[in-house]
């Protein structure tokens, strides 16, 4: 899932953030995007189809011994939010849902795989329980601290374009670049410099997969450009 989302973000530079959990991914486009003249149907169908085809294409990379038995599919929807507040509220909602679902699934399968309950019995055991009860049940019955579970499962996956230091992105010009650095006209000079600046700007960003909190303020305060 993370790999398919990265493929989408590599193709569409106007996507500045993605969040994934379970069988879903959410993509945030820059407010100023003019992709496909902002045609909703065009954006929605191309993003969904690229995500699906990338998922199928790279399946063998992650599951070499488990061939696909039927073609997977993903649906999609596109929503325009009025302000940065609603955008943050949306992603906070998705991450809260990640926690709720993962906590339930963790104790559910502990009851089945370690506690000897059937799936029906496990559902009945958990019916009406609150978060604190589930935490206590994991600890007292199975000696498990929920907070020790990897953050990937508790918080989902956050994909962003991280800015990296200029020093790490600067490389020595190639021989071909050296030839191009001595153009015969001012116009060629401007074009060459513009191309180099564009390449450097792109080189100073990398696509990162994080497993961190996006409900609080810290994530957004450190990356104000996401909501500009």
Keywords summarizing the entry:
228 residues, alpha+beta, Alpha-Beta Plaits, 3 domains, four-stranded antiparallel sheet, 11 helices, 4 strands, globular
Task: Specify the number of helices.
Answer: 11
Instruction: Spell the H/E element sequence.
Output: HEEHHHHHHEHHHEH
Class inferred from helices and paired strands = alpha+beta
CATH hierarchy, class of the largest domain: Alpha Beta
Can you give a write-up of this model?
Its cofactor is Mg(2+). The chain has 228 residues and is α+β, with helices and mostly antiparallel strands. The protein has 3 domains: 112 residues, tRNA(His) guanylyltransferase (Thg1) (Alpha-Beta Plaits, 2-Layer Sandwich), CATH 3.30.70.3000; 68 residues, no CATH class; 31 residues, no CATH class. A hairpin with a 2-residue loop joins strand 1 and strand 2. Helix 1 crosses helix 2 and helix 4 crosses helix 5. The two termini are 27 Å apart.
Quick recap:
Adds a GMP to the 5'-end of tRNA(His) after transcription and RNase P cleavage. This protein has three domains: 1-80 and 156-164 and 206-228, tRNA(His) guanylyltransferase (Thg1) (Alpha-Beta Plaits, 2-Layer Sandwich); 84-151, no CATH class; 173-203, no CATH class.
Provide the fold topology.
Elements: H1 2-11, E1 15-21, E2 24-29, H2 40-57, H3 59-62, H4 84-113, H5 119-126, H6 131-142, H7 151-155, E3 157-163, H8 166-169, H9 175-180, H10 186-203, E4 205-210, H11 218-222
Helix pairs in contact: 1-2, 4-5, 4-6
Function: Adds a GMP to the 5'-end of tRNA(His) after transcription and RNase P cleavage.
Domain tRNAHis guanylyltransferase catalytic: 1-82
Catalytic activity: a 5'-end ribonucleotide-tRNA(His) + GTP + ATP + H2O = a 5'-end phospho-guanosine-ribonucleotide-tRNA(His) + AMP + 2 diphosphate + H(+)
